[in-house]
Amino acid sequence: MDISLFCTNNKEANFLQQYSNQIKINGLAAIDMQSTNQPQNSHTSTSRSSGSSEPCPAGTKWASRLLMECARAVSEKDSSKINHLLWMLNELASPYGDCEQKLASYFLQALFCKATDSGLRCYKTLTSVAEKSHSFDSARKLILKFQEVSPWTTFGHVASNGAILEALDGETKLHIIDISNTLCTQWPTLLEALATRNDETPHLKLTVVVTANIVKSVMKEIGQRMEKFARLMGVPFEINVISGLNNLGELTKEDLGVQEDEAIAVNCIGP
Questions:
Q1: What stretches in the chain show pLDDT beneath 70?
Q2: Residue/partner pairs of 247-252 with CB below 8 Å, 24 or more apart
Q3: Whole-model pTM above 0.85?
Q4: For a designed S-S bond to 113, which of 19, 39, 119, 231 qualifies (C-beta 3.0 to 4.6 A apart)?
């Protein structure tokens, strides 16, 4: 295939041709080295074996140009050009390469789904895989690891809990609407604080609004653990999870279950 058909000048065409050839050479070399240490995977793609993570040199921003050209071809339904560009991107792209290769790899998947009208089917497949592979333990480890490397989130939890306790001091029915995406890691410390108050322990209702693609089984496990911890602390507690929203603008008062006698606080802390 003539790569120059999709380039704006000879310099760019020469670079892409050399880059593609270099990827293939690096890939074959990598496979040859691997074969001396372990069995070779017959399905390994040479374009994905370079493993380069070096920064992209200036003037080599080829991925965005090719992707835009491919997107334009998809929009114009130019099947011949689509096939050529998808082939070229597939040769150059790699999720393990440099920034340009990664950019090409991820957007190539999206363009392929668009060109083949398989986006919904692909989404359902990925969601199904996520349901099977994700668990509460894996989600907890991700959140805790993030908090370990970024203590600012924990600081936000402490400050937010302090503000809530101060604002709702003396109230007997508390309703916290949580639109964060921290998987309720903030609330055990609040439950402990409520359990040690000098006055009567208030009733706490927690409404968690989930707009991110969090597996339902994970949120169910979190809810059960929160209820168990609240019983241990002696705090009257209920939790309600609202999921499946595309945006917060879809929320209604009825969805949130707001009651007239509740003191309400809205919490939003993102990792």
A1: 1-60, 130-134, 211-215, 270-271
A2: 247/211, 248/179, 248/209, 248/211, 251/209
A3: no
A4: 119
